[in-house]
C-alpha cells in the first residue's frame, strides 16, 4: 500500500480499524522523517531509533485520538518530542559522579551492589516466566522477540534473516511487544 497526499486519510482510517497493512504503510512512509528529526535532536543513532520506535508504538496505540485537521507527520513529531522529553527526564533522575583527584578515594567505600545468589535466582525465575508468556504468542511473534531480545540482532539483521522488509519487522516487533504486555497484564 503506497501513501500519497490524496490517499493518506484513507490509509489512516484503515489503520484506525486495525488494518495491519495500513500500519505498515504509515510506518514505512513516515519512519525516515521521524527518525531524521530525532537524530538531529539527539545526535545519537540508538536514541533516535528507540524514540522513533516508541513514537510509532504510542501513535498506533492511540491512532483513534488523531485529529485529521492536523498533518499526520506533525502529530507523530509532537509524540516524538514528548518521548524525547521523557527520556531526558529519566536520565536526569540518574545521578552521575565525576571522578577527580579530590574524591577518588570515596569510591573505595562503596558497597558492592552486584547481584547476590538470591537476586540471580529471582532474575532466572523472572526470565523463565517471561519465556512462558512468550511461548503463548503466535510462532512468528515468538521468533521476532527471540531474534531481537535474546539473540540481540539489529532490525537489518532480522530483516535479512526473515527475508522481510524492515518495516514489516518493526511492525511485527511492536505488535509482539504489545501482545506480550497484554498477556502479562492479564495474569
What's a concise summary of this model?
The chain is 70% helix and 0% strand.
Can you describe this structure?
It comes from Paenimyroides ceti. Belongs to the sigma-70 factor family. ECF subfamily. InterPro entries: RNA_pol_sigma-70-like (IPR039425), RNA_pol_sigma-70_dom (IPR014284), RNA_pol_sigma70_r2 (IPR007627), RNA_pol_sigma70_r4_t2 (IPR013249), RNA_pol_sigma_r2 (IPR013325), RNA_pol_sigma_r3/r4-like (IPR013324), WH-like_DNA-bd_sf (IPR036388). There is one protein chain. This protein is mainly alpha-helical. The protein folds into two domains: 8-93, RNA polymerase sigma factor, region 2, helix turn helix motif (Rna Polymerase Sigma Factor, Chain: A), CATH 1.10.1740.10; 117-186, Winged helix-like DNA-binding domain superfamily/Winged helix DNA-binding domain (Arc Repressor Mutant, subunit A, Orthogonal Bundle). Helix content is 70%, strand content 0%. Helix 2 (20-42) packs across helix 4 (72-93) and helix 6 packs across helix 8 (166-186). The protein is globular, with a radius of gyration of 20 Å.
What would the keywords be for this entry?
187 residues, mainly alpha, Rna Polymerase Sigma Factor, Chain: A
State the helicity in percent bands: 55-70%
The tally of strands reads: 0
Q: Note the overall shape.
A: globular
Per CATH, the superfamily of the largest domain is: RNA polymerase sigma factor, region 2, helix turn helix motif
Indicate the CATH architecture of the largest domain.
Answer: Orthogonal Bundle
Main β-sheet description: none
What is the first-to-last residue Cα distance? 37 Å
CATH class of the largest domain: Mainly Alpha
* Oligomer kind: single chain
CATH topology of the largest domain: Rna Polymerase Sigma Factor, Chain: A
User: Average pLDDT value?
Assistant: 83
Radius of gyration: 20 Å
Q: Which structural category do the helix and sheet elements fall into?
A: mainly alpha
The total count of helices amounts to 8
Amino acid at each position: 500500500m503506497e501513501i500519497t497526499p490524496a490517499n493518506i486519510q484513507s490509509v489512516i482510517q484503515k489503520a484506525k480499524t486495525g488494518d495491519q497493512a495500513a500500519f505498515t504503510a504509515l510506518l514505512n512512509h513516515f519512519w525516515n522523517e521521524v527518525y531524521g528529526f530525532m537524530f538531529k535532536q539527539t545526535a545519537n543513532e540508538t536514541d533516535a531509533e528507540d524514540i522513533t520506535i516508541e513514537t510509532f508504538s504510542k501513535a498506533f496505540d492511540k491512532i483513534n485520538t488523531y485529529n485529521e485537521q492536523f498533518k499526520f507527520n506533525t502529530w507523530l513529531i509532537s509524540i516524538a518530542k514528548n518521548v524525547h522529553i521523557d527520556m531526558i527526564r529519566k536520565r536526569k533522575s540518574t545521578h552521575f559522579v565525576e571522578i577527580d583527584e579530590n574524591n577518588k578515594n570515596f569510591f573505595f567505600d562503596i558497597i558492592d551492589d552486584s547481584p547476590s545468589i538470591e537476586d540471580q535466582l529471582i532474575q532466572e525465575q523472572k526470565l523463565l516466566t517471561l519465556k512462558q508468556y512468550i511461548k503463548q504468542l503466535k510462532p512468528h511473534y515468538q521468533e521476532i522477540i527471540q531474534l531481537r531480545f535474546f539473540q540481540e540482532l539489529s532490525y537489518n539483521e532480522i530483516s535479512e534473516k526473515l527475508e522481510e522488509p524492515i518495516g514489516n519487522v518493526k511492525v511485527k516487533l511492536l505488535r509482539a511487544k504489545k501482545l506480550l504486555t497484554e498477556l502479562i497484564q492479564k495474569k
